């Protein structure tokens, strides 16, 4: 089974990339590929650009990667309560290439932020939107207060949050085996 994980952020220090990578460690490493969206830079989507230049290579490559996945782990970055603009732009291009962008792929949907809501607004938007693009969301989890609750060396630091996260992982595993 191929697991593809990424943080839906273009930040070089993305906490959502860190969180997606952490979630991916719960799966066999030989089955996992963690993407960096900086490898999929695309111009700002407009129908004029699409008409004049077609679909950019970065978007085509991103869609091809999604097609390889049996399970997607996506941790949603949040800006002003919504998708990060750069990810939304990549997603716009991807959906123009393939309307059912996720093609019935199973998905673990995550979010985190430095704040107490942990990206819950963007998580809710993705939970509503992604199934219309073919995602089969198996579970979701939001980690609040990333800087206080997560360590790159130790993972989730708070026992009840770690227990809840691990239960979410087990729920996903039970649905993919």
TrEMBL record:
Superkingdom of this protein's organism: Bacteria
GO cellular component terms given for this protein: cytosol
Pfam families linked to this entry: FMN_red
Matches recorded under SUPFAM superfamilies: Flavoproteins (SSF52218)
Any GO molecular function: FMN binding
Segments forming domain NADPH-dependent FMN reductase-like: 1-138
Name by which UniProt lists this protein: NADPH-dependent FMN reductase-like domain-containing protein
